[in-house]
Q: What sequence folds into this?
């Protein structure tokens, strides 16, 4: 039982292309999050979701799109990738009642 | 907006020794959570310890303990009897405490800890 599965683990693409990072959870946690990790910045919140069809912006949402049609999936899409979006992306989930967040293994995305 | 500051980019400690990682934060909230996450070279984000602001007692988890100073807005992590497996990046993080809402995390920039023989 993996809990949170992110795919792919590594991705290389070119500027201007669309790319989607997948996040799937088996815990039925209500809350899901996307963070990006960059040197000198730690992790920063991109988007989060409180339930299916409910999403909201985080600290750095520009250039990203999310959807959540099913509770277990929370894909992150870069509609037109830019080099500044080269980063490691983490998905996280959280159960109700102020539970701590659990993280996936991350996706390293390189945009050439 | 909340901020989290880790002023030690890198630290080194010998095996079996004790090391303390520093973290300060800024918030106007009275109730919140503080966390330490460990990120080994495998890139996983592993929760080490969590502290609730309204609890005066410092949290402990085996060899890991915190020194939580609410008035000073300080939250340091002490690792006792350091082991080679403790080599990792350590992130301090903050979240507000609101029941029924997503606990958005604000992270510091991390401290890279190297445990040596």
A:
């Amino acid at each position: 039982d993996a809990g949170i599965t992110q795919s792919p683990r590594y991705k290389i693409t070119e500027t201007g292309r669309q790319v989607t990072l997948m996040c799937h959870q088996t815990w039925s946690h209500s809350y899901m999050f996307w963070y990006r990790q960059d040197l000198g910045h730690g992790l920063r919140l991109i988007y989060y979701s409180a339930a299916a069809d409910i999403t909201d912006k985080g600290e750095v949402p520009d250039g990203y799109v999310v959807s959540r049609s099913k509770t277990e999936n929370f894909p992150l899409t870069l509609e037109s990738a830019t080099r500044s979006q080269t980063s490691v992306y983490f998905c996280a989930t959280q159960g109700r009642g102020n539970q701590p967040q659990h993280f996936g293994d991350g996706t390293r995305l390189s945009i050439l | 907006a909340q901020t989290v500051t880790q002023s030690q980019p890198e630290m080194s400690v010998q095996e079996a020794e004790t090391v303390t990682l520093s973290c300060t934060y800024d918030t106007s909230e009275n109730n919140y959570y503080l966390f330490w996450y460990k990120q080994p070279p495998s890139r996983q984000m592993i929760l080490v310890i969590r502290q609730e602001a309204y609890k005066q007692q410092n949290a402990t988890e085996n060899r890991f303990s915190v020194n939580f100073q609410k008035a000073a807005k300080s939250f340091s992590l002490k690792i006792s009897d350091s082991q080679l497996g403790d080599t990792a990046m350590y992130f301090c993080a903050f979240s507000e405490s609101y029941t029924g809402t997503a606990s958005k995390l604000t992270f510091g920039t991390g401290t890279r800890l190297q445990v040596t023989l």
